[in-house]
């Protein structure tokens, strides 16, 4: 019977007979992954006149956003609370440099009030820096309600409603339809007008949909006759290699004038490959209607991993097993749908399950949204969030079995 978890990554080492340093359930993120991504994208910015932002909602933890700030990234902020969170990080670091902030969201009145109170200090920053604070309005009504509140130094952009497949039953609820040229014309008349924002759905993220979106924005701008400084393509950015990213930006550059900054605001992207969840088996039950097992874990899809698709790193050598059974991993809540995933579990030669009560498992593919969703639904405790670097060897014994 396998009684301990085997962590094959360099950051984890199973050390039987030592007490655990990490208690379950826990989320562990490797900060080195973030730093490498921040560095790679930062290096591309200068060469390609583009800008990368960190979407605060995708990893609302000061440790990660502090690093993003130190690496010179911009930020995607959705409302007052996210803005206040970012400003608190900057204050803690005694940050004296300008910060690039792109603000897009349905509820911006509080943030507009806050910005109106910091007029002078920010104005000085922006006189010798390309960094800016930009509000991308989502509708004419939102623009009209904010325009008098917003100070001169805050730039204003418009969010474009962008969808590749307009035949879909449910259209996106964000942005202004490109056919509403009168609305764009009115907003672009504002002295502070400076650009466009479009968030392209993750299902439409091939290079061609970016290019189509860019063409549509460039046409719109020429139709309404406005000058603009940036086009921000929002989140859902999932390109890995610098070559792929460069290729995308170069394709966009064929359409977008050279003095216009191309911006992206990746969220999920930054944590890709950085996050693991450590969890313990609480219960094992046979299924009633078919062969298989329910394996109850102390981590919950509902409370902790709502948008994650965990990959199970099971301490089992698949090649040596002749028979397997379906196993469904569930969370500890009373919600029937609190299911984390299913695997074919190879059985031991004896026919026994290779996992027993108390076994500790590592789930990979854990994103930063898990930190945002971390809740106490159904009386389940919030999960502990920790960070590591490859140089810090996390050693802990795996309890149980
Ligand atoms: C405006 C905006 N920017 C960025 C993001 C981050 O998206 P993702 O995590 O898919 O990269 C989102 C996500 O909803 C968004 O709405």
Domains, number: 2
Can you tell me the residue ranges where pLDDT is under 50 for at least 5 consecutive residues?
1-20, 123-128, 391-401
What's the overall average pLDDT, rounded?
87
Distance between the termini: 8 Å
* Count, helices: 10
Q: What share of the residues lie within helices?
A: 25-40%
SS class = alpha/beta
CATH class division of the largest domain: Alpha Beta
The CATH level-2 architecture of the largest domain is identified as: Alpha-Beta Barrel
Key features of this structure:
401 residues, alpha/beta, Lyase, Ornithine Decarboxylase, Chain A, domain 1, TIM Barrel, eight-stranded mixed beta sheet, eight-stranded parallel beta barrel, 10 helices, 27% helix, elongated, disordered N terminus, disordered C terminus, binds pyridoxal-5'-phosphate
Provide a compact summary of the structure.
The chain has 401 residues and is α/β, with parallel strands linked by helices. Helices cover 27% and strands 24% of the residues. The chain folds into two domains: 141 residues, Lyase, Ornithine Decarboxylase, Chain A, domain 1, CATH 2.40.37.10; 240 residues, Alanine racemase (TIM Barrel), CATH 3.20.20.10.
Task: Give the SSE map.
Blueprint: E1 12-14, E2 26-30, H1 31-48, E3 50-55, H2 62-70, E4 74-77, H3 80-92, E5 101-103, H4 109-116, H5 119-127, E6 133-137, H6 140-146, E7 155-161, E8 176-177, H7 181-188, E9 193-197, H8 207-224, E10 230-232, H9 242-253, E11 261-264, E12 275-286, E13 293-297, E14 311-313, E15 324-330, E16 339-346, E17 360-364, H10 369-373, E18 384-388, E19 394-396
Helix pairs in contact: 1-9, 2-3
């Amino acid at each position: 019977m396998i009684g301990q978890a085997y962590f094959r990554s360099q950051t984890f080492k199973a050390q039987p007979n030592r007490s655990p340093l990490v208690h379950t359930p826990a989320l562990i993120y490797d900060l080195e992954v973030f730093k490498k991504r921040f560095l790679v994208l930062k290096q591309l910015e200068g060469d390609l006149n583009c800008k990368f932002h960190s979407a605060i909602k995708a990893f609302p933890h000061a440790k990660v956003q502090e690093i993003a700030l130190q690496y010179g990234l911009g930020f995607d902020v959705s409302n007052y609370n996210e803005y206040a969170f970012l400003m608190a990080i900057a204050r803690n670091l005694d940050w004296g440099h300008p910060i690039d902030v792109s603000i897009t969201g349905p509820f911006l009145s509080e943030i507009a009030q806050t910005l109106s109170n910091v007029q002078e200090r920010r104005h000085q920053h922006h006189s010798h820096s390309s960094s800016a604070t930009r509000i991308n309005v989502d509708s004419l009504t939102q623009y009209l309600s904010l325009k008098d509140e917003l100070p001169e130094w805050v730039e204003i952009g418009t969010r474009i409603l962008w969808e590749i497949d307009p035949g879909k039953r449910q259209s996106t609820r964000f942005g202004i339809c490109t056919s509403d040229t009168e609305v764009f014309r009115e907003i672009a008349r504002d002295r502070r007008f400076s650009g466009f924002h479009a968030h392209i759905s993750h299902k439409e993220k091939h290079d061609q949909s970016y290019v189509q979106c860019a063409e549509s924005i460039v046409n719109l701008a020429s139709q309404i006759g406005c000058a603009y400084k940036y086009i921000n393509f929002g989140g859902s950015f999932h390109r890995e290699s610098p070559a792929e990213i460069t290729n995308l930006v170069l394709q966009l550059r064929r359409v977008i004038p050279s003095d216009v900054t191309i911006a992206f605001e990746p969220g999920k992207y930054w944590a890709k490959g950085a996050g693991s969840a450590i969890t313990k088996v609480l219960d094992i039950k046979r299924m009633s209607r078919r062969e298989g097992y329910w394996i109850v874990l102390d981590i919950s899809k509902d409370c902790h991993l709502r948008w994650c698709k965990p990959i199970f790193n099971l301490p089992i050598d698949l090649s040596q097993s002749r028979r397997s059974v379906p196993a469904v991993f569930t969370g500890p809540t009373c919600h029937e749908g609190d299911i984390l995933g299913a695997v074919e579990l190879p059985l031991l030669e004896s026919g026994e399950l290779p996992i027993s009560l108390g076994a500790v498992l590592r789930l990979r593919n854990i994103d930063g949204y898990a930190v945002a969703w971390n809740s106490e639904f159904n009386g389940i405790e919030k999960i502990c969030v920790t960070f590591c670097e490859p140089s810090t060897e996390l050693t802990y014994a795996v309890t149980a079995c």
